[in-house]
Amino acid sequence: MFKKILIANRGEIACRVIKTARKMGIATVAVYSDADRHALHVQMADEAIHIGPAPANQSYIVIDKIMDAIRQSGAEAVHPGYGFLSENMKFAEALAKEGVAFIGPPANAIEAMGDKITSKRLAQEAGVSTVPGYMGLIADADEAVKISNEIGYPVMIKASAGGGGKGMRIAWNDVEAREGFQSSKNEAASSFGDDRIFIEKFVTQPRHIEIQVLADSHGNTVYLHERECSIQRRNQKVIEEAPSPFLDEATRKAMGEQACALAAAVGYTSAGTVEFIVDGARNFYFLEMNTRLQVEHPVTELITGVDLVEQMIRVAAGEKLPFAQTDLKINGWAMESRLYAEDPYRNFLPSIGRLTRYRPPAEIAESSRAVRNDTGVYEGGEISMYYDPMIAKLCTWAPTRDAAVEEMRLALDEFEVEGIGHNLPFLSAVMDHPRFASGNITTAFIEEEYPDGFEGATLGDDLLKRVAACACAMNRVAEIRRARVSGRMDNHERVVGTDWVVSLGGQDYSTSIQADREGATVTLDGSDYRISSSWLPGQPLARLTVNGTPLVMKVARQPGGYRLRLRGADLKVRVHSPRMAELAALMPEKMPPDTSKLLLCPMPGMVVSIAVEEGQEVYEGQPLATIEAMKMENILRAERKGVVAKINVAAGASLAVDEVIMEFEG
Fold first, then answer.
1. Distance CA 231, CA 436 (A)
2. Using 50, 70 and 90 to split pLDDT, how confident is the model at 191?
3. Are 511 and 464 in contact (CB under 8 A)?
4. CA nearest neighbour of 547 among 525, 523, 528
């Protein structure tokens, strides 16, 4: 076995690999850029080597710099994680020349599966079910239209070297096929330096289901069942689970055996994933093979008990797999939510800055439930503009899907993140969505259920009442503390009442509370809610039970009440005595400021250019300014016709969120 390995990656996956290596008694070497000098993976590793400036193309993906770090450290093997150099054939070859083990597949397998056209041909030869399509080179738009008609609309036009949704178009007719071919070709050339395009049948009601395979160098290949990855936004996975709620045993077995056949056909070793698209009738078609560890691998580990990173290391060291296919059973259900530094209230724009508060839920490993959090950050650390915005991967496990979902709901509500925008509210909203709960999902779920973006979740009446009862109980605790203030006059003792009016979600609830040593009973709308909690005023997280059912809320004190956040909702809650509630109802509501005549910066960033001048008339959709954030340019456009009255910034200016870029005439 290796004595020392180097992890050619950063963030949560580097930390994940270090944990397994430490368990195996293997020393670890981290590499880091200028931006990651104080990163968690650097702190966790036994040693760390600096490899260059912050941009990845000057550090993490420069093969020569990684090779220098290997020589300097004396590492015997390299784990590439995912992304960066994980599927780079030249990197695998460079390691082989140096006599260093690559904890991954052979270079020829990376090459074969890295090209979508080649991989599909190999899949067909291996007897793997593939989507009807044309894999040859397509000369021009006319040929693209002809091929599309032969396949039958709708069709998917894709870049051969593509990934992450780039160079991909759906065409429903000849006009769209012609336009899509040229757009895909141009995008592929600029993104990948490879403008080859292929066309295949577009599968309706699609689910994205993938099979985890594991192979050693002794001819043994197994599949560790499937992962459902259909909850995607712009072709990027958001929530994954294992197993899939859609597959039956026969389909699972067929997909697994075909995935193993493909791996064997290319001489694959190590962990890999074969991705399929599955239609509403459980017909499945090969998409691609990822020749690396997947981001979502923890859900497979949770249902099989297999440490995939450990097996990758053992396979790279020449060991045989310690189990056969018949040993790999499905135990329970696992969920994964990807926590991103993206603001869902601002169309998921990336968010950067310092994590002023970062408190994940406690990790649990019990026979009836589990909570796991794979992360690469810590409280006080920075979310950098240079890398992927993932903060953490929160996973839960339970014996059934419903129980795993409920564990995830509670874990998301317990997860405290402050200082940056993040997608915790959106993840919570999806977990509570009836369609997700039913398992009736496709890759279009987010697009169909949130067509206008995310504006926060609306809680059901039953949950609102439970929250109102909790607010009443929490208010009583706060009132008792205020009643015990020292230095008061003897004849001015404050009496805590039993009747309160709780206002939230546009509703007023009249409540009555009776407390004892074990908790409190709140009567609301003729129903009793038994509440117990150890929450005290000032604590930002309240863990309660309501009629025996757990409820977790993030709490912030506000005048007259609280700000409560749970299940994707952000509630302003007021708790008043009946008389105060009567008077409060007469108060005019404060309206938010009118920003309709302002162009505000939607994220922290730098002004690349201003496209208009003062006094200029603009029309709806016209570009007004370009802002760069996290190495991405964002064009801000006019929402309606108007005249530019004042421009407040110039190119090169650094802006904060909601800073005024320009003003318009009334």
1. 9
2. low
3. no
4. 528
Contact residues for 599 (Cβ-Cβ < 8 A; gap 6+) = 624, 625, 636, 660, 661, 662, 663, 664
Ramachandran bin of 631, using left for φ above 0, alpha for ψ from -120 to 50, beta for the remaining angles: left
Q: Give the SS3 label for residue 411.
A: helix
Residue 14 CA to residue 10 CA, distance in Å, equals 5
Catalytic residue among 226, 288, 296, 336: 288
CA angle 38, 40, 43 (to 5 degrees): 75
State pTM to two decimals.
0.86
Which uninterrupted H or E stretch holds 42? helix 40-44
370-375: strand order across its sheet? 284-290, 270-278, 207-215, 221-233, 236-242, 333-340, 390-398, 370-375, 364-365
Summarize the confidence of residues 339-361 as an average pLDDT: 91
Name the amino acid, one letter, at 493: E
Pick 162 or 449 by higher pLDDT.
Answer: 449
Q: How far apart are CA 420 and CA 353, in angstroms?
A: 6
Name residue 480's beta-bridge partners.
none
Q: Which of 52, 38, 37, 39 is nearest to 13 (CA)?
A: 39
Q: For this structure, is 449 an active site residue? A: no
Q: In the chain, what percentage of residues exceed pLDDT 70?
A: 97
Q: How far apart are CA 57 and CA 64, in angstroms?
A: 12
**At how many degrees (to 10) do helices 116-125 and 249-265 cross?**
110
Mean pLDDT calculated for residue range 372-392: 93
For residue 347, give the 3-state DSSP assignment. Answer: coil
Higher local confidence (pLDDT), 139 or 42: 42
Q: Indicate the residue type of 514.
A: Q
